[in-house]
Known about the structure:
By secondary structure, the chain is α+β, with helices and mostly antiparallel strands. Helix content is 33%, strand content 28%. It has five helices and nine strands. Strands 1-2-3-4-5-9-8-7-6 form a nine-stranded mixed β-sheet, sandwiched between helices. α2 crosses α3 (129-139). The longest helix is centred in the N-terminal third of the chain and has 33 residues, at 8-40.
Amino acid sequence: MLVEAMNYQEITKEVMRDFEKLRVNTEPRLSDAYEKERRKFKIDKSRTYPKACPVKTATKNTWILFFSKGPGKDKYQGIDSTTVTYVVYYYTSRGLTVINLSSGGYLELYYGHFFKRYNERMKLGLDKPIDIVTNYFLYGSHAVYQIINKNDKKCTLGVSPNGFLLGEFLQEERFLINKTFVSRDLTYDEQGEAEKKLIGRLEMDIMRANFTGNGAEKARISSAVFNGLAGDYIDKPAAGIR
Length: 242
C-alpha cells in the first residue's frame, strides 16, 4: 500500500508491482468491455471516447484506468486501437498525490496543487479532487515534454492539449514531478512580478530548446509558452517524499 513515508524507490516498487498484475489480469477484461461498449452504442470510429474505470487492488491501492482511442489512430479498429493510461492516487498529510505511468519508462507525479490550478485555470468548477483528476486524464493529459537544464536542475515544460505543465525531472529516480498547470489563455499581463521574472530567466532557454514534435507545433509553442509560465512552478514537493 502506498503511504506517505515511502521514498521514490519504494514508491516505484509498489506502483510497478501493482501495474504488472493489473496489466495481466485487469486490463484485458476492461479493454474487452470498452470495445463492447463502443460497439453497443455505435460510437463513431473517429471519436476518442475516453472512459475511466476505478480499480482497487489487493494491496489496497486505488487506481483509475483510462481507456480511449489512441491519439495516433485516425479511426478506432478494435482493442489494438485502444490506449490505456494507468493512474494511482493516495493521500498524505499534505493532501492528494497522483502517479501516472508514462510510456517513456518513468513515473509522472502530481500533487493536489497541480489539480487545484488545473480546475481554476480551466474554469471547471469541480469540487471533489478526484473529479478534477478524472477530468484531467480523460481530456488533457497527453503531453510532450522538454527538459531545460537550469541551476543544476532539470526543469520540465510539458505541452498538453489544454495548456502547459511545469515541473522537474529527477533523472536518477526516474520521476517527473508536474508542479503546476497553466492554461493557454493566461496572458502575460495577468502574471505577478515573480512570474514575470521567471519568464525572463527562462525565455532564452525555451527559445533555444529542441522541442519534440513537428515544426508547426514547435513554432506554436515558442510563441505561446511565455504566457504559460507561472511563479508557483517553484513549489516544493509534499512531505514524505525524500
